[in-house]
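step: validate -> pass
step: tokenize input -> pass
step: predict -> running
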Amino acid sequence: MMTPLIISVFVVGYLCIAFENVLKVNKAALALLMCVGCWVLFAVGGFVDHVELSHAIERNLGEAGTTLFFLMGAMTIVEIVDQHGGFNFVRDTIKCQSKRKLLWRMAFMTAILSAVLDNLTTSIVMIMILRKLVDSREDRLIYAAMVIISANSGGAFSPIGDVTTIMLWNGKMISALGVIMEIIIPSFVSFIVPCLILQYSLHGRHEVAKKYSDTATTEVTRSRRRIVFGIGVGGLCLVPVFHTVTNLPPFVGILCVLAILWVVTDVFYRDREEHDTMAKRVTNMLSRIDITTILFFLGILMAVGVLAEIGVLHDLGVWLDQSTKSIGAMQHYVVTGAIGILSSIVDNVPLVAGAMKMYAISTPAEVALNPALADFAKDGIFWQLLAYCAGVGGSMLIIGSAAGVTVMGMEHITFGWYLRKVTFVAFVGYIAGLACYWLQNILLFHGHFAI
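step: predict -> pass
step: emit ->
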């Protein structure tokens, strides 16, 4: 009885968030209310005893906390580097007067950076730069939407570009070289196609005189600017290495970078007064963090956690698998394609985790006995499709990915606007990438890699 009620609360809460601009109620408040409602029903529904309930809350809060602290740390680091003029060279590289040319430059830069850093951090960086380049609110929304699509596409072909690819990489389902070699072209197609369409929403040229002068950073010496940039961006690049070496969650690496940057900047400004506005201290940057976005993210992740706890996501995956067995060779495309679409509605992490538990990775010995299991071996078609679909599929709705939620908060994009203007465009790119992967596996030998 309680399971349908929990699902109903989630659906109603989700619809309220979708129509935030109509209800005129902040999405963070709606997400938190939905989260509390789901957990209350879970607690009184007799699903678990009070001991297991505490464990479930701690488990889901811990998983959500890793994302939230990562987000807070990354936003603060990016803000510090930006305030010291560290991203000026990126801005100068992509800036141009043509609105359409700027869209293409920003799309490619975002995709490349998201593969090196991650889609969440890259989205924050690019939105900070975008604010300096585009004054028009209407145009900036188009660019911001393209940032979301490109960041998710770029993160899908990198083993460190998205939380889900990191999960699959750590689980030995994919290898670094395998996912890059076979997913990079479909991933690029998945953002190039939307860029081709969205460019027609932009006309003319930007104003010659822009408002992105460097007056805010004239007090920062070149050496300090380079040091801050090196520690900030270099540290972000090394977070995946830190994670691989220590097996600690990525947010620990982010907090390490933030702590080092905090110490260094405090040393820089130790001769200035604590409240000197020209002293770009971390304590000043922390006040710029959008707590509304953090709380919204908390509500969404914790509410989805209830669906995972009651087994809805797992049961949905099992049903999907059983109902598509008759399709034959195309089953993997249908199952992973559906997971990708679902990942635009709910968080892709529990979906991928559920898929990893539904299917066991095939060993070479098992494949030798049953060649049909090759699709579930390391770098098999199923796992690579899962990496692509779970990453790129989140672009179809603005709350379908960490990048989307972050940009939504930073640029105050409404769910309805994104649904009307971008969802179909992102879907076309998603399908185009899937078709590209299918052609690759028909025309090219599907090899296996071992890095």
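step: describe -> The mean pLDDT is 82.
step: cleanup -> pass
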